[in-house]
Design brief:
- The protein has 64 residues and is mainly alpha-helical.
- It has one domain (2-62).
- The protein has helices at 2-14, 19-62.
- It starts with a helix and ends with a helix.
């Protein structure tokens, strides 16, 4: 979250002359970054679940 805020500050300080452009682009950019973060977290979560399932299947098979 801190990194996201920092990137927003950088985006804000790029062009102080055209305030309306800056204000318009600030929010969608943040939303996009948040969405990418959520998707990344979901991907990681699915990967972990897949690994756990594989381990569970192997351990069940190894039991008589």
């Amino acid at each position: 979250m801190a990194g996201l805020r920092r990137s927003l500050k950088v985006r804000l300080s790029v062009d102080p002359r055209r305030g309306w452009v800056r204000e318009r682009w600030r929010v969608p950019e943040a939303r996009k970054n948040v969405r990418e973060g959520v998707i990344d977290a979901l991907r990681r979560f699915r990967l972990i679940i897949r690994i756990i399932r594989r381990i569970a299947v192997l351990s069940i098979r190894s039991f008589p």
